[in-house]
Structure formats: C-alpha cells, structure tokens
Amino acid sequence: MTSLNRAGRSIYLLFFVGIIAISFSSIFVRWSTADVAVIAMYRLFLTNLLMLPFVWKFRHEMMRLNFRQWALLLASGVMLALHFLLWMGSLRLTSVASSTVILALEPILILAGSVWLFKAKINRMMIIGMGIALLGSIIIGAGDFQLAGTALRGDILSLLGTIAVAVHMLLGQFLRAGLSAFSYNFWVFFVAACTLAVYNLVNGHPFGGYAASEWGIFLLLAIVPTIFGHYLFNWLLQYMNATTVSMGVLGEPVFSSLLAWMLLGESLNGLQMSAGVVIIFGVWIFIRYGKTKPQPIPSDAPLAGKGPVEPTVV
Q1: What is the per-residue burial (b if ≥16 Cβ within 10 Å, else e) of 242-265?
Q2: Does residue 314 sit within a domain?
Q3: CA separation for the pair 94, 29 (Å, rounded)
Q4: Residues in domain EamA (predicted)?
C-alpha cells in the first residue's frame, strides 16, 4: 500500500469520525434547558479553554495576521455564531429529523459558492452523488415536515442557520490557505463565542447559576461535536475542498435521527432507515468520483506518527 493510499484512508476515516461527532450536537442541545445562545457561547468558550495548552506553539502565527485575515476571521466567526444561534434554536421548535435534514442544503450552497469564488470543477458523478444523498435526506425528514405553527418557524431558523454555516465554510477555505488549523479554529471559535456573549448580555440571559448537569452538557458539546466535529472538518479543509467536507453534513440526519430514536424517543420508520443507507451511498459516490482528491498528509503531521499531537487532529 502506498503512502498516498494510507493518507487517503486516514482522511476518510477522520471524515467519518467528524460526521458521527456532529450528529451528537442535536441530542445534547435537546438535553439542556438553558437558552440556546448560552449553550452555544459556553460550548465555544470551553473549546477555546481546552485548546489553551497548545496556544504557545502557535503564538507567533496567531498574532501576525494581516488586516485581511483579521477581517475574514471576524466575518467567519460571526457567521458561525449565527449558525449556532439559529440552528440550535430550531431544535426547540421542530424535530431533530426536520432540522438536520434542512442542513442537507449546505453542500449545494457551498458548491455554488466554490464554483463562483474558487472556480471549482464538478463532474456528472459528483452531481449524481449529491442528488442521491439529498434524496435520502428528504425521505428522512419528510414525515416530520409541518407547514404551520412552531415547526415552520423551526424549519426557517434551520434554513437561515444553514446559509450562515455555508458562508462560514467558504470563508474558512480562503483563510486556511495561509493559516494553520489551530490558529484558524482558535480565533474563529473565540470570535463566535464573544459574539454570542454580547447577544446574551443584550438579551439579559444569565451567565451563571446553572446546574452541574448543564455544565456537563456544555463540556460535552465542546468536546464531541465541536472538537471532534467542526474542528476536525476545518482541519480537513487543508486536504479536501469545502464542498467535499460539507458533504459530511448529509450524514448527520442519518445518525442524528438514529440517536434521537434511541435517546429521545423520536419516531423512526423503516423507510427512513433505508434512506440513511441511500445518503451514505450518495456521499461515497461524491467523494469517490470527485475531481478533488485528499492531499497526502505531511510527514510532520500527527497522523504520520511523528511530532507532537496537535489538537487539530483530535
């Protein structure tokens, strides 16, 4: 087996880990009784806290950003904050299946943006793979879509949150060309957390007084879907384009719906489970036949077994 093949398999494995990790996000949010803006704020601040032991190694790069990089980081962080605020808010108004299936629009938005901004090339098999995955996503959420009351408001919030995260990912592809994953993630998460802190302050949301179980949920959100999910996806932008990375979100309805069925008692029928297989097949076609293949992992990367383990790989 060549080193390139090993690197490609490692990338795909990490990609799968990221999909599983982000699927837990909706479950943790449902378990919490705190305001979603507070949940998102502490989720990101705790992520930054977990990253602090590694800051020293990247201190020079983190403080030597130019005006354009700072501006893009600010915009990317604000978009990430909006995504968390809107999408997490949707989970209080509609089902996990409905909310996560709307996120399936993210790859289409990012693909359109990549073609426009990066002149990305697409082929017929990529479009077929995306279409198959989208069809499976629609089947999963179809039984839960409601066109009235709080469910409709929840679906609209999820759609707006999807647009926000698509912009965040496209800005990330610009920034990751000249920044390490650690520097990019640390500053983007910090900007997003501060944005949410201002929002909470303006709206009078309490910053303390939460039960130990709530702090446990905040910490779980920081570790599982943020570090093992968003952080990992941002790291993968170094080896995969934004459209391919965003395809991971199409796997989220599958695992989120399964978790919601097991842990929250939400309904899941045989048709929806079959649709999950369709989604995974579509994602596989998109990645397998995409024109942009994973780049080989450099020799000094932690996956190569050399050098210190950096949090960007966790």
Answers
A1: bbbbbbbbbbbbbbbbbbbbeeee
A2: no
A3: 13
A4: 11-140, 153-287
